[in-house]
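Thanks for the sequence, V.! I ran Glycosyltransferase family 2 protein right away. Repeating your input here for the record:
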Amino acid sequence: MVQPSDPVVDLVVAVHSTARPVERAVASVLAHTRTPLRVTVVCHDVDPGLITEKLGASADDPRVRLIEHRDGVRSPSGPFNRGMDEATAPFVSIMGSDDLLEPGTVDSWVERQRAGDADVVVTHLRHAAGAYVPTPPVRPWRTRRLDGSRDRLAYRSAPLGLVRRSAFPGLRLTEGAPVGGDIAFVLALWFSGRRISYDRTGPAYVIGADAADRVTFRPKPVAEEFTYLSSLLSDESFLGLGPREKASYAVKFLRVQVFGAVHNRPDPDFWTVDERAALRAVTLRVLALAPGAERVLSIADRRVLDAVLDPGTPVEVLFERSVARRRFRSPAALVTRDLTRLLAREAPLRFMVASVLSRR
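Predicted structure:
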């Protein structure tokens, strides 16, 4: 058995409830990994003794250690940062306690890292139900030397895979953020200019479906959901990005965060005057970040954007447009309102092709 004093990978699992299947997460790593590694289970505001019982035989594995972290903050950033602070291996990885890895995932990451001398290895994802997650929609067949903008890496909003610690000293998740605490972290990775590889066809990181208390899945007031935005937009490294990089993130934010905020809150009663105003304010901040970025959006997307920016639009119309934008084969979802941007990298046609080919 490889001792934990010389791991190649420090894998951090944060757990804040005994209801989480953390034993499954840890076992999925230990049982099928040849690479020397250490699994650090950070017990976030929960008794480590209870987590030890949950882990069963895995708790006795010399590759496993438990760390107690108490901060009273309902955010995953704190325990993940604590685990990364305790890491000593060349590479670090983070993992949700209700997720799991397919057999050989860590070994595949390491092989991909060595093949390209990568500073970051991006894993591919699938849902527990079996569906493959087609993000990021990188250039077809690309596996190494990825570019943050050209490979649309902003669509991967979690740092899942490997990160070389020496390449990113002091990099941390945003403390206290209930959601989005990893956004600044991943953007610092994607737009760093460092060597980034994509483990396109290896075993998958599997997103668990059985955590009813997952913090980031609870509908929140718009202002609370986007608390991380202010710190991101004032971050020196983010402000130092070029126009192309900022536009890449802005388009992703509109498609995923803004339109997702509408899609994930289908209750008309939620959308009070204050909530509509909050979403408008957030959207305007991002549009100001990259003027004109919205020109690559489809006709259907622009109709939703129009409704978001005009809180006087009836909420029923907002919902109708939100549903319509998800008819991805419709002409309105494929064609840009601004026809000069029809074949732009972030426009629907090229974006969808890259998504379809993202595993090849």
